[in-house]
Amino acid sequence: MTPGDPCLLWLSGRDRPGVHALGEVVGDVEERADGPEVPVRLTLLAEPVPRADLLGDSRMQDAEVLRMPAGSNPSWLTAEQYAAVLDRVRPPGLGR
Question: Which residues contact 26 (CB under 8 A, 6 or more apart)?
Fold first, then answer.
């Protein structure tokens, strides 16, 4: 992970699982007493991208976060998987 890399916030669980924010890495990874830490800047989405919407996309079939929803963090997406998420992001203030 390096500054400028894209990142996103994925919420798991039963209450609205999916992508809730997009952002980027804004600093270098630092070793802390309780493990590595990386600073990010996130922007909440006007409407989250629901997990259910991504399940049907063939680009997401091997996505770690869908195959192992209780897996550890951080998780990652390929460029193709990230594009599948971006295809579903609405610009703020616009309807579906």
Answer: 3, 39, 40, 41
